[in-house]
């Protein structure tokens, strides 16, 4: 399930652990700092990585949800800017209340009536304060962005042909397009086993192999918007009293024991939200996105804190298979980079992995390469965008990034034997790029060449692929130089893929491949 929308939040008291999550957020004690439970969607398979990052950077313990691809943690509101700077999370929301064992009625009307009645009982006050604070932070950021990025954006677009020029703009509108397509059919005709919302989103975003997608084991997730009327009321209490807030409800449902579809739940729950707050329903230009996440008997009500996924932070020039920055971070973290390590991505595409690496591990040296001149150009443009972004933040201390991009042949890299510490790359799946047939020759050749450039004994490789059968066969052919240490199963653009952590043996690799 995924969450998106504006957000904010004031301070927050120390975490109360799972009990606090269970009960939801009640009004803060007099004088106490407000505490909020934050939910974050993360790349499926990298939940533990995200939890470790939260502990490291925010000092908060996380709980990994049974619904794959989500974690929950508690922070004080003053930490909100740091929460948005987390590298491993896609979308953020503040939890209004969580029910770990919600008993749904078997009768559809009764089950939906219970969801309607729930709205009046939920502790909305503190989460809405969090949303307001988040919004105020976002407005400041947007003002800065407009001021700093007007000219670079206009310079950048023509530099990489028509395909790239449109990619940046289209990605900001993907989500609304997808959710509109569901909103157009408000009746509960489609069953959630037919994931219409997911299909709609993939239809738009599948240009990027790593776009927003639901976990593979979730059978029936559909995004549905509130179909309630548009009656206006007095508006929400707070700083914008005069303005009537516009809202939408997005329901993500997984499980086969529910008597209702997710668009029906969103419609009825949204009607009750509208009645309770006197907000106005608007499927596209909404201020508040209320999230209703249902996973079997687990129900979480939240308010979205992000309008678009945080994984878009580094890339301005997209290719046909652009990797999400959040997944790139998870892959890099898996190989535990140390200062002065030389990290190579020999099939870099648009440069998502090395750019993420240079941003988060600046004490390492990153080398990106690809055999496609278009890919190298896109990667170079993305690096230029990152440099401009760094300059606009603080021109007096702006530094370069420890990253070079080169065009080369993956099977014959211009690097000295044993000179590289880490190889991290997204290998061709054989779907949009290359073919399954070509992979049978390419994979063993790649693994041999990676083995040659990596330091024996300490070198490691983290490789992502969906062509698992071919990879297993290739690995068996080079078992003398690579040992598999760990496998993380991930969801990539709706495809069931794997991230393999390999460790370099002490065995000396041949200077060139004997089987070619």
UniProtKB/TrEMBL annotation:
<feature type="compositionally biased region" description="Acidic residues">
    <location>
        <begin position="206"/>
        <end position="215"/>
    </location>
</feature>
<dbReference type="Pfam" id="PF02926">
    <property type="entry name" value="THUMP"/>
</dbReference>
<dbReference type="InterPro" id="IPR000241">
    <property type="entry name" value="RlmKL-like_Mtase"/>
</dbReference>
<feature type="region of interest" description="Disordered">
    <location>
        <begin position="139"/>
        <end position="178"/>
    </location>
</feature>
<keyword id="KW-0819">tRNA processing</keyword>
<feature type="compositionally biased region" description="Polar residues">
    <location>
        <begin position="168"/>
        <end position="178"/>
    </location>
</feature>
<protein>
    <submittedName>
        <fullName>THUM3 protein</fullName>
    </submittedName>
</protein>
<keyword id="KW-0963">Cytoplasm</keyword>
<dbReference type="GO" id="GO:0005737">
    <property type="term" value="C:cytoplasm"/>
</dbReference>
<dbReference type="Pfam" id="PF01170">
    <property type="entry name" value="UPF0020"/>
</dbReference>
<dbReference type="GO" id="GO:0003723">
    <property type="term" value="F:RNA binding"/>
</dbReference>
<dbReference type="GO" id="GO:0043527">
    <property type="term" value="C:tRNA methyltransferase complex"/>
</dbReference>
<dbReference type="InterPro" id="IPR053943">
    <property type="entry name" value="RlmKL-like_Mtase_CS"/>
</dbReference>
<keyword id="KW-0808">Transferase</keyword>
<keyword id="KW-0489">Methyltransferase</keyword>
<comment type="similarity">
    <text>Belongs to the methyltransferase superfamily.</text>
</comment>
<dbReference type="InterPro" id="IPR029063">
    <property type="entry name" value="SAM-dependent_MTases_sf"/>
</dbReference>
<dbReference type="InterPro" id="IPR004114">
    <property type="entry name" value="THUMP_dom"/>
</dbReference>
<feature type="domain" description="THUMP">
    <location>
        <begin position="192"/>
        <end position="305"/>
    </location>
</feature>
<dbReference type="GO" id="GO:0030488">
    <property type="term" value="P:tRNA methylation"/>
</dbReference>
<feature type="region of interest" description="Disordered">
    <location>
        <begin position="1"/>
        <end position="26"/>
    </location>
</feature>
<dbReference type="GO" id="GO:0016423">
    <property type="term" value="F:tRNA (guanine) methyltransferase activity"/>
</dbReference>
<feature type="region of interest" description="Disordered">
    <location>
        <begin position="202"/>
        <end position="240"/>
    </location>
</feature>
<feature type="compositionally biased region" description="Basic residues">
    <location>
        <begin position="139"/>
        <end position="148"/>
    </location>
</feature>
<keyword id="KW-0694">RNA-binding</keyword>
